[in-house]
Prior knowledge:
By secondary structure, this protein is of the alpha/beta class. The protein has helices spanning 5-30, 56-69, 96-105, 117-125, 193-199, 229-234, 246-256, 274-286, 298-301, 323-335, and strands spanning 42-48, 74-78, 110-113, 131-135, 147-153, 181-185, 207-219, 236-241, 259-265, 291-295, 312-320.
Amino acid sequence: xxxxxxxxxxxxxxxxxxxxxxxxxxxxxxxxxxxxxxxxxxxxxxxxxxxxxxxxxxxxxxxxxxxxxxxxxxxxxxxxxxxxxxxxxxxxxxxxxxxxxxxxxxxxxxxxxxxxxxxxxxxxxxxxxxxxxxxxxxxxxxxxxxxxxxxxxxxxxxxxxxxxxxxxxxxxxxxxxxxxxxxxxxxxxxxxxxxxxxxxxxxxxxxxxxxxxxxxxxxxxxxxxxxxxxxxxxxxxxxxxxxxxxxxxxxxxxxxxxxxxxxxxxxxxxxxxxxxxxxxxxxxxxxxxxxxxxxxxxxxxxxxxxxxxxxxxxxxxxxxxxxxxxxxxxxxxxxxxxxxxx
Length: 342
């Protein structure tokens, strides 16, 4: 979200305080005053520097699926949106991201959901898990890791170069030096020399690029009917989403060749109401759309609503990563971080 200059002026002093606190915390971890707790296995952290969507969930999925394909006993440790100390015991997903991970992985990889990721990891380790993917883990330094992967969104890489709350950085840009692997997402130019030049001021670690691949367009809620490419290319859609970076979704739709006659965005993790569903459907009809289109993450948040007049589809996506990325990840996992080896 863009902020006016007056808001920046008011919030900047708070950003100075926030930055000082974050730097002090990092200094304590770097010098061993605060110590990270270890798990009996290999921990791969996936995180970012900014608030909002950078593609963490597709990256976590890609790594988890790769580990499962290699026959490893793996689990994902995730706080879940508004995660609590302990996850629910009913078996019901805790958030849209957890629901997506469970549906996509179908039991091939376990999930540990809750704020205490060390505790959840220990429980999973007693059931044979020895590979852990730490979701949104870059700032979660309470847990030791073997590899730190940091995602950089090329559309807004550094959040205005100001930390919260005036900017979108979760910690100063210099923190990128902790990363073992950098992955630039949503770049229209590969490589991106200007972006790499800024990163190289702080790190010499390998930089990779990933592209978003459209796997299929499925009708919700059942997800059992998919549109053929020739059909979705002819159709007109009202596109909507409630994710961290809606502009990226709409940009992807245009790149893939969708005809979006209208675009609507909601807050990240937005739980849709019956009234909003009716308004979206009517707006689609008024704009001549044949159907509505959202992200796979939105499906869970649409569970309490019903569309009466038009079908609703979602885009299932995945990340395409070069083999050199997987080689670097394997090397990092085998070596581990200095002082954090399992």
